[in-house]
Amino acid sequence: MTGLAAHDVALSLGGRAVLHPSSVRVAPGELVGLIGPNGAGKSTLLRVLGGMQAPDEGEIVLDGRSLATAGRTWRARTLSFLPQDEVPPPPMRVADLVALGRLPHRGHPDRARDSAAVTRALAETDLLALRDRPGSQLSGGERARMRLARALAVEAAYLLADEPVAALDPAHALAVMASFRRLAAGGTGLVVVLHDLMLAARFCDRLVLMRAGRVVAQGQPADVLTDAAMRAVYGVEVRRVEDAVIPWALAGPQD
Ligand SMILES: Nc1ncnc2c1ncn2[C@@H]1O[C@H](COP(=O)(O)OP(=O)(O)OP(=O)(O)O)[C@@H](O)[C@H]1O
C-alpha cells in the first residue's frame, strides 16, 4: 500500500511523554499541514514520521515497508526531510550546497539528471540568481530557501518539511506553498509544519492539529480550523470576514 503512515507512535524524552500514541498518514499527491501551538509536538511527530527519531511505541510504514527495517539508501531517496534547526552552511557555493541533496542518488550517478534536479530546485526557491554566491553569505530567509532547495533536489516521493516558510517574506512564502501544490499535483506526498494558518487553510488538502503531544483533530482545513478549536487549542478568538480570500482572521488573544 502506498503512502507514509505513523501508526500509534509514542515517545518520551528526558523522562517526559512528548508524544502520546498518535497516528498520521500522507498519501501520494497529498499536501498535509501539521499545525498546533509551540511545544505541541509537531517537530517530534515529523521527526518520528521521517525516521529521524525512533518511537518508543508504534511503527512507521513507508510504501508498505516498515521504516525501521528499510534500507538506508532506499529510504534516503524515497523520503526527503527538512529539519527546523539550521546548521550554519559551510563556505561552499549555493548550487554545490543544494547539490548535496543528490547524495542519496550517488549509487546511480547521472550528471545530467542531477544537474537538472538542482536547477529545478534553485528555480522553485528563486535562487538561480544566487547560485554562485557562498551559502554562508546569504540572509536568513535566503538560507532557509537554500535548505529547502537541497531537500527539493532529492526529488523524493515524500517531503517532510518543518516550518519551511517561517523565515520567508510573504511573496516567497506564497511561492513555496504554490511549489508544494505543484509537487503534490505531480504525485509527491508532503507533510509541512506551519504556523501560518492562512497559508495552511489556503494550500493544504488536509490539516493535522496537535496539542500537548496529541493529534486532536485532522481533516479538511474548514473542518479543523473551527472557532472552537482555535479557542481551545490556541487560546485565540476568530473574527469571520465576508468575501475575503481567507474568510476569517485571528482577532486577538482570549481575555
Ligand atoms: N530532547 C528533549 N528532551 C525533553 N523534552 C523535549 C526534547 N525535545 C523536545 N522536547 C519537548 O517536547 C515538546 C514538543 O516539542 P516539539 O519541538 O515537537 O514542539 P513543536 O510543536 O514543534 O513546537 P514549536 O512550534 O515551538 O516548534 C516540547 O514541550 C519540548 O519542550
Descriptive report:
By secondary structure, the protein is α/β, with parallel strands linked by helices. It has 2 domains: 4-224, Rossmann fold (3-Layer(aba) Sandwich); 225-255, no CATH class. The chain is built from 9 helices and 12 strands. The strands form 3 sheets. The protein has a 6-stranded mixed sheet with strand order 6-7-8-3-9-10, sandwiched between helices. Strands 2-1-4-5 form a 4-stranded antiparallel sheet, with helices on one face. The longest helix is centred in the C-terminal third of the chain and has 16 residues, at 170-185. The protein is globular and about 55 Å long. The mean pLDDT is 92. Bound molecules: adenosine-5'-triphosphate. Residues 13-14, 16, 18, 36, 38-44 line the site of adenosine-5'-triphosphate.
Which term fits the overall shape?
A: globular
- The CATH architecture of the largest domain can be given as 3-Layer(aba) Sandwich
Look at the structure and give the mean pLDDT: 92
Which class of secondary structure composition applies to the elements? Answer: alpha/beta
Question: Can you tell me the CATH class of the largest domain?
Answer: Alpha Beta
Tell me the number of structural domains: 2
- What compounds are bound to the protein? adenosine-5'-triphosphate
Please indicate the percent range of residues in DSSP E strands (runs of 2 or more): 25-35%
Strand order of the largest sheet: 6-7-8-3-9-10
Helical content class: 25-40%
Radius of gyration: 18 Å
Task: Figure out the total of helices.
Answer: 9
CATH superfamily of the largest domain: P-loop containing nucleotide triphosphate hydrolases
Weakly predicted, low-confidence segments:
none
Separation of the first and last Cα atoms:
48 Å
Report the order of strands and helices.
Answer: EEEHEEHEHHHEHEHEEHHEE
Instruction: Compute the number of strand runs.
Output: 12
Instruction: Return the CATH topology of the largest domain.
Output: Rossmann fold
Sheet with most strands: 6 strands, mixed
GO molecular function: ATP binding; ATP hydrolysis activity
Function: Part of the ABC transporter complex HmuTUV involved in hemin import. Responsible for energy coupling to the transport system.
Protein name: ABC transporter ATP-binding protein
InterPro entries: AAA+_ATPase, ABC_transporter-like_ATP-bd, ABC_transporter-like_CS, P-loop_NTPase
